[in-house]
Amino acid sequence: MKVHVIGGGVIGLCSAYYLQKAGHEVTILDKGDFGAGCSFGNAGMIVPSHFVPLASPGVISKGLRWMFSASSPFYIRPRLDLQLAQWLWHFYRACTPEKVRAAMPIIRDLNQGSRLLYQDLSSELAVPFDLENKGLIMLFRSAKGEKEEISGAEMANDLGVQAEVLSTNDLASLEGGTRLQARGGVLYPGDSHLSPHLFMKAIVDYLKVAGVKFLPNTILAGWDTQKSKVTHIRTQSGNRLPVDQVVLAAGSWSQKILRPLKINMPIQDGKGYSVTLTAPNERPTIPSILSEDKVAITPMGKDLRFGGTLELGGMNGSVNPKRVQGIMSSLPRYYPNINLPKQQDVDIWVGFRPCSPDGLPYIGRSSQVPNLVLAGGHAMMGMSLGPITGKLIAEVVDKQQPSVDLSLLQPERYG
Length: 415
Ligand SMILES: Cc1cc2nc3c(=O)[nH]c(=O)nc-3n(C[C@H](O)[C@H](O)[C@H](O)COP(=O)(O)OP(=O)(O)OC[C@H]3O[C@@H](n4cnc5c(N)ncnc54)[C@H](O)[C@@H]3O)c2cc1C
What we know:
- The chain is α/β, with parallel strands linked by helices.
- The protein contains ten helices and 20 strands.
- It has helices at about 10-20, 60-65, 80-95, 95-125, 145-160, 170-175, 195-210, 255-260, 320-335, 380-395, and strands at about 1-5, 25-30, 45, 75, 135-140, 165, 185-190, 190-195, 215, 220-225, 230-235, 240, 245-250, 270-275, 290, 295-300, 305-310, 350-355, 360-365, 370-375.
- Strands 4, 5, 6, 7, 14, 15, 16, 17 and 18 form a nine-stranded mixed beta sheet that branches. A six-stranded mixed beta sheet has the order 9-2-1-13-20-19, covered by helices on one side.
- α1 runs parallel beside α7 (about 195-210).
- The chain is globular, with a radius of gyration of 21 Å.
- It starts with a strand and ends in an 18-residue tail after the last helix.
- The structure holds flavin-adenine dinucleotide.
- Flavin-adenine dinucleotide (FAD) binds near residues 32, 251 and 257.
């Protein structure tokens, strides 16, 4: 079958990979050069530890408190926007214990499945991408952080995700070469990490050799339909490409792209920043998340990347220096010996996480447009969930029984 994949982020590329492996003739197009989007400068964490969706009890009151701090990790730019209002309403409705209980095993299974697929990919792709299986530490400095993380560890163990509580001494022996200042931590040994830009390059190179057709700088601008099926996709430069099957994986742009087809797949762009220190003087070997500050720290090769904040700002790519300062100032509180350059001397990367209201991705075939398959809304876990999403998309395209139950992930679940 001929399949057109729209969007060359991790979700589109992994979909192309498994579709090509299943024997399809794949064309992938992107509005850029397969080097932008959210999938390049992220923190590169593969996270079976992250089984609690963003929409969960308690998150609204915490979010409201953060809203009033200029350097906090969460912010919604106040504006009159019907889509934002609808998204927030769905988010609010998803924050119940029952919904979270139903979502957790699915997110766990997706992440664990994806982590295994990354191991296969690391042998299959010719270029290494710094994949390491060293786990992830949730670090805390306060009694409140400790309580939250220990309760998270208990929940993890109940769900079959291994979690070990670490003392200050345990931390010191784990990270002997790097001075670490924390009250303690929780180690999730089943997590992994990689360098996202290297993975993206490795998979692009592989797909090119495997015969996947790449159309860079090609902007999907519209759809032609007949009897509810898509017959052509129209590009901004005026071309009409005939299509058989289409996979839409356009990240934070997907909701807008789907509007002419009257498909409602709510997505808000969760803007985040990352900064990469090149060969810093000290570098932890195990990735960590600073629990109180919500900052992710990842060793990548010889470098160190740290990133964070989630701003719902309406696709506004500007850099808010106060929030970047919030991220940068957290690093020395935990890793006091790492030399940190001045903020004006670092390159700040900006990415838009495609966030669904209930924290679950959208994976499945459209019920309204039968030759359209949708993949998106992976929020803070898109890198982690890329391979399993690609595998599931190939199964959906082939009308096979999906290897993970997709009933809660239906793309048109909001009507
Ligand atoms: C600071 C930060 C840290 C993060 N850390 C992690 C992490 O540690 N682990 C993790 O799992 N996830 C992490 N994430 C989230 C992860 O990066 C995203 O979930 C993931 O990249 C989303 O992938 P995607 O393919 O859906 O979207 P994208 O990567 O944004 O790709 C979408 C593509 O669609 C293209 N496109 C859009 N519109 C059109 C159009 N009209 N025509 C053609 N092409 C179009 C875009 O150019 C883009 O390339 C992080 C995100 C941020 C911001």
